[in-house]
Specification:
Elements lengths: L1 H6 L3 H14 L6 H8 L7 E5 L14 E8 L5 H8 L3 E8 L13 E7 L9 H7 E12 L14 H7 L7 H5 L5 E7 L2 E5 L3 H10 L1 H4 L5 H15 L1 E5 L2 E7 L1
Helix pairs in contact: 2-8, 8-10
Length: 250
């Protein structure tokens, strides 16, 4: 898990992979645009972004917050996070913290909390999230389908990857959230990554991006070799990239 967590400190690599995912996605809409469609952000003043990374989720949010606080376990993300959030809020705070843990803020302080592609790392933080959320507030979660990379499981067992994602996935997220929140809705974001024969370099980069997730199960170089072989034979490979947006209220 330490290697997975540390991999999120490489902002340049994550931005590059973000561009790659966008380029090879069948669904060309940005999932953050879908969140913006679903949420009336002008109703909320104090935002807590947990597992915030360098501020990816914040980038496309509207301006006008009084406070944006980010919590992440990688100090390397602080500078970029602050830089992005300063454009969106009057006050910006970054706290380095390994979740789940107590967050030293008053109960009900935030009227908006977000977790984008991170809650599966710390689902046990949900009780603390509930404590921090205002009774009229909103908790936004973006998460993967448990079928992520299922195409590779025709050849390999990704047990470690599956264990991480299934801690909070599109499929089981509702059942987990209902233990803490009374009103929950969700919106699916169907997508798949499509690699053609001429996209072999991009395919290798994508597998490299998942390296920290899969290396406990299979040597990533072996995965690369097999997937490149499949791409050469089939001329096209697709990978499940279905996600789900949860909106949860107390």
């Amino acid at each position: 898990m330490d290697k997975i967590i540390k991999s999120y400190a490489d902002q340049g690599f994550h931005k590059e992979i973000g561009r790659l995912i966008k380029r090879y996605s069948k669904n060309q809409k940005d999932i953050r645009e879908e969140v913006n469609r679903l949420v009336e952000f002008d109703k909320y003043r104090r935002l807590l972004d947990i597992g915030c990374g360098y501020g990816w989720f914040i980038e496309l949010l509207p301006v006008g917050f009084d406070l944006i606080m980010g919590i992440d376990c990688n100090n390397e993300n602080e500078h970029e996070f602050i830089k992005i959030c300063e454009k969106k809020a009057k006050e910006t705070v970054f706290k380095r913290l390994m979740l789940p843990a107590h967050i030293d803020m008053p109960s009900g302080y935030f009227d908006l909390i977000s977790s984008a592609y991170s809650l599966y790392f710390f689902p046990d933080a949900l009780s603390e999230i509930k404590r921090l959320l205002n009774p009229d507030g909103l908790f936004i979660v973006i998460t993967h389908s448990r079928s992520m990379l299922e195409e590779g499981e025709k050849f390999f067992n990704f047990d470690n990857l599956r264990k991480v994602i299934e801690s909070f996935s599109a499929e089981n997220g509702y059942g987990i959230l209902k233990n803490y929140f009374s009103r929950i809705t969700y919106t699916d974001f169907p997508n798949e990554l499509v690699f053609k024969e001429e996209d072999s370099t991009a395919l290798v980069q994508y597998i490299e991006f998942k390296k920290a997730f899969i290396e406990k199960d299979v040597d990533p170089e072996t995965v690369k070799e097999k997937m490149l072989e499949e791409l050469k034979v089939k001329k096209i490979l697709t990978f499940n990239k279905n996600d789900r947006i949860f909106l949860a209220r107390p």
